[in-house]
From TrEMBL:
Keywords: Cell membrane, Membrane, Phosphate transport, Transmembrane, Transmembrane helix, Transport. The chain crosses the membrane at residues 21-44, 72-98, 110-135, 141-159, 187-209, 257-280. It comes from Aquirhabdus parva. It is found in: Cell inner membrane; Cell membrane. Belongs to the binding-protein-dependent transport system permease family. CysTW subfamily. InterPro entries: MetI-like, MetI-like_sf, Phosphate_PstA, Phosphate_transprt_permease. This is Phosphate transport system permease protein PstA. One of its GO terms (molecular function) is phosphate transmembrane transporter activity. Gene3D superfamilies: MetI-like. It is a multi-pass membrane protein. GO terms for cellular component: plasma membrane. The keyword Hydrolase does not apply. Residues 73-276 form the ABC transmembrane type-1 domain.
Length: 287
């Protein structure tokens, strides 16, 4: 029987490589964490100076004038809210089907494949798709087209989250419910969904945060408007496109408003993500 012993040189080399890889991984991790904080700090630092009462009470101004972002905030709120109303039922029901009924069926595998494609598709491609199917036939941009584009982006996030959260529910809970005489539908409604509800709520919040800052799909669908309007059948003001338009201008007032809008969206997304993590932490601790 052959025996192997580590020479001092081999032992030194192993420890050196181990420490080198550990140090490199630590440095890269720190850089990865520092970059988002740097971006967030820069956006808030540049935008906080323009935070005032006029920002949320006045509409977007013409060049060389003062104003706020009221019409853009209202437009974004309407489109994101309606998109979530459409996407939430579709995402949750599809996730329930995949986790509770489809599982290993061919249809479920096809749905998962399509969902993964949508999840990784660039948002500008989705915007272009909605432009072809809605804007071109209607002959004008509209808030409804923007709603559909945002809903398509939100659905795959919620499908994946809902399925994963339901799969975390132990099968013994389903079997116990069925053994007591419950139907499969009752087991899902009374046992599985309540057990996974915090995770599903987390998915809704993450999808909400994802679509709140989308710009590319709205360029092809809702476009933008300098006026205050809640009519989604016409082009409507929204924060992402307003930020893009103002940031590209040479007007210092518009540029300041662009930074303020960027800071507003950043803070909103950070808060939504923090709430989602708190909800998920509550789910994992069982409180």
């Amino acid at each position: 029987m052959a025996t192997y012993t580590m020479t001092p040189f081999f032992n030194f080399k192993r420890k050196f490589v181990n420490k080198a890889v550990l140090t490199l991984a630590t440095v890269i991790s720190i850089l990865g964490m520092a970059l988002p904080f740097w971006i967030l700090f820069t956006v808030i630092q540049r935008g906080f100076g323009s935070f005032n009462w006029a920002l949320i009470t006045q509409i977007t101004p013409p060049p060389m004038a003062e104003g706020g972002l009221l019409n853009a905030i209202v437009g974004s709120f309407l489109m994101v809210g309606l998109a979530m109303v459409i996407a939430a039922p579709i995402g949750i029901f599809t996730g329930v089907y995949l986790a509770e009924y489809g599982r290993e069926s061919k249809l479920a595998s096809l749905i998962r494949f399509v969902n993964d494609v949508l999840l990784s598709a660039p948002s500008i491609v989705i915007g272009l798709f909605v432009y072809i199917i809605m804007v071109v036939p209607m002959h004008h941009f509209s808030g409804y087209a923007g709603v559909v584009a945002l809903a398509i982006i939100a659905v795959p996030v919620m499908v994946r989250t809902t399925e994963n959260m339901l799969l975390l529910v132990p099968d013994v809970m389903r079997e116990g419910s069925l053994a007591l005489g419950s139907s499969k539908r009752q087991a899902i409604l009374r046992i599985c969904l309540p057990a996974a509800k915090n995770g599903i709520i987390t998915g809704i919040l993450l999808a909400l945060a994802r679509i709140s800052g989308e710009t590319a799909p709205l360029l092809f669908t809702a476009l933008n408007s300098p006026y205050y309007s809640t009519d989604l059948s016409q082009p409507i003001a929204n924060l992402p496109n307003t930020i893009f338009q103002f940031a590209m201008s040479a007007d210092d007032g518009w540029i300041s408003l662009a930074w303020a809008g960027a800071a507003l969206i950043s803070l909103y997304v950070v808060i939504i993500n923090l709430v989602a993590r708190l909800v998920f932490a509550r789910n994992t601790t069982g409180k």
